Amino acid sequence: MAKPYKIELGEREMPTRWYNVLPDLPEPLPPVLHPATGKPVTPDDLAPLFPMALIEQEVSQERWIDIPEEVQEVYRLWRPTPLFRAERLEKALDTPAKIYYKYEGVSPAGSHKPNTAVAQAYYNKKEGVKRLATETGAGQWGSALALGGNFFGLECKVYMVKVSYYQKPYRRVLMETWGAKVIPSPSEDTEAGRQVLKEDPECPGSLGIAISEAVEDAMKRDDTKYSLGSVLNHVLLHQTVVGLEAKKQLEIAGDYPDIIVGCIGGGSNFAGLFLPFIKDKFEGTKKDLRVVCVEPEACPTLTRGPYAYDYGDEAGLTPLLKMYTLGHTFVPPPIHAGGLRYHGMAPIICHLYRLREIEVVARHQRAVFEAAVQFAKAEGYIPAPEPSHAVRVVIEEALKCRETRESKVILLALSGHGHFDLAAYDAYLTGKLEDYELPKEKIEEALKHLPKVE
Ligand SMILES: *Cc1c(COP(=O)(O)O)cnc(C)c1O
């Protein structure tokens, strides 16, 4: 029989526990600080925003955390997701490298994001929460949470950045189909929104304003909590279901990755894939494992930013996280990979980069789409602009293998499909893709506004 193109697990083989990397880190993570006192935050500080179960997961030292049966039931709608061997791409590149990709585009929302949205909705429901408030840019996170909220009977209010609300109506319709209430931000529904509108009725909105609105909404109502789609430890934890599956699938294929490549916006999809593998690097069973994170040249958080305490949001409402950052006031150029336009990064990713356990590179939008089209032509699947950053670096590594005649095993995190991003492909194909240089001056300016921490 021919070698399989896709390695699939049965529903019964889906992981029943998430992997928590915190107890296995070579050094402990720096604490999260309260913005007013500069002291480490307590669970009580976070209680108005998140349910206790998630606050506990944020700092848990348990290596394995059970995935609740109710969450597994929803996961089984699309999980386990397939692992593909990209033989057609290998042929097209004439490389001896073996390329695999773990594909999260098969979820109803088209990305990895429902892995945490479903879990977060479940824990909120269990603690009596009736309503969730969140923000969304282009709508990837909002649609995932709308899906999760729908399954657990939670009302879901999504503050969607106003320009996207009007420019990208399809994800809004997706959210509304799953029962979420979507409102363009800035809105009249919150004090933060009204304030902005008073000064500038035509304000196109930003993620920072939308976060302020969602946080205010959650703080003001007893029945409502706030939900975040990336960055935090508990979000990365939920995403490890991806890597745990991939590990089993590669075992079936009889391979182990030499290089794992993924894109990082807040860090959740890629951490979800690589954390179960990097455990082997810490333990010494795969010392030379290379983990390569790819970020956009236009928002080069780890390759250009300092390692410092900063707010998680543009408005400066969240606790202070120790991370590589371009400054919370930094507004990146409008690249098509909306999910990678974030000034900070998951503290776990930053810590591992600081310890030089993982590598980070930045790539330009044009090179990214060139690779995306190459991938789509070879493999058929159309990657979202975000994981196309990783596709680019996978192709580069495979071409290096052609030079050195090494048949390295490369694992790619393909976090979502690009069906809602075809305008970006159109721009590339018609030669209208915008060029964005490294925004050096804007970064310098934003770094002046880092909060002062002792
Ligand atoms: C949101 C998103 C990302 C970026 O977020 P991470 O937390 O870094 O994963 C990447 N890929 C897709 C498809 C997304 O929707």
In summary, what is this structure?
The protein has helices at 43-46, 52-59, 69-75, 87-93, 114-126, 140-151, 162-167, 169-177, 191-199, 207-220, 233-253, 268-283, 301-304, 347-354, 365-379, 385-404, 422-429, 440-447, and strands at 6-7, 17-19, 64-66, 83-85, 98-103, 131-136, 155-161, 181-185, 224-226, 259-263, 290-296, 307-311, 320-324, 359-363, 409-414. The protein is α/β, with parallel strands linked by helices and 454 residues long.
- Structurally, the number of domains stands at 2
Instruction: Provide a count of the helices.
Output: 18
User: How far is the first residue's CA from the last residue's CA?
Assistant: 64 Å
Share in helix:
40-55%
**Attached small molecules:** pyridoxal-5'-phosphate
Low-confidence stretches: none
Widest sheet: strand ordering: 1-4-5-15-10-11-14
CATH level 1 name of the largest domain: Alpha Beta
**Overall geometry:** globular
